[in-house]
């Protein structure tokens, strides 16, 4: 494996032994987005493979940024339903008053503005997998409706009187402590038991900081291929990353490295290029970016404004101001 570490030469093996991984390293990294399941749990992988072959509900627990959605997709890919659709439903992003219509669909004339029928997300997941992310954010009023679907495997479109059969397999995920939510009355106990005949816990990245050199190398390799770059990271930059606890987990690590690769002046990522999200706004405000550096970011993002704003840690509105300031808005 070609090393991407520069400066003082660093041996990957000095940080982590390949024997620690229960499965092939590349498969492991792909499967759970470079982080996750405790590495001493080889049995977990066999269990997940067995679960994937069944239709049992699975509840994936883990902090924000640990890769719960990636693991859900991998379970779907292992399953007998892999040829069917994988429909991701973020329970926190759908307004409560629209949730039923989005989940179950509606018939023509069901309500004002329903000029034609609409297939719901559950029907779209037919013979595939319905992944309900952020299930802990679902309001109590909607929890009862979801419970009925899970228990009876039936639902009704809004405006219809006949039941439709739900053929989707359910995977749920949350970063909330559902047991505590049950105790405080925020989550139904009966729904909790229906969600979680099997629970899978994904570790936060800070539990496996010894893996950082290998994870960093994988992320840099991927970004080098995608952006046609040849970046390497210095020993000092790696050491700086090793002292951080990554509250945003692997998602934060990826953001930090992508940003460092975009903003580094040459092919070396140095310690000063590593800007942690927690203090990025204080030390590297987007307004201090030069016009040339902003253009580099935009070109790397193929002039995608949303992606460019994310890379430099600002909002789309503020990015527009920067574009106008440097007379770059004509290129958008």
Features:
12% strand; 3-stranded parallel β-sheet; disordered N terminus; 5-stranded parallel β-sheet; Rossmann fold; globular; 2 domains; alpha/beta
Protein described:
By secondary structure, the protein is α/β, with parallel strands linked by helices. It folds into 2 domains: 37-201, P-loop containing nucleotide triphosphate hydrolases (Rossmann fold); 206-331, Helicase, Ruva Protein, domain 3 (Orthogonal Bundle), CATH 1.10.8. It is 43% helix and 12% strand. The chain has 15 helices and 12 strands. The two termini are 40 Å apart.
Give the helix/strand layout.
Elements: E1 5-6, H1 25-31, H2 42-53, E2 58-61, H3 68-78, E3 86-90, H4 96-104, E4 105-106, E5 118-119, H5 121-124, E6 129-133, H6 140-152, E7 154-155, E8 164-165, E9 169-174, H7 178-183, H8 189-195, E10 198-201, H9 212-227, E11 232-234, H10 235-242, H11 249-263, E12 268-269, H12 277-283, H13 291-300, H14 305-312, H15 316-325
Helix pairs in contact: 2-3, 6-8, 9-11, 14-15
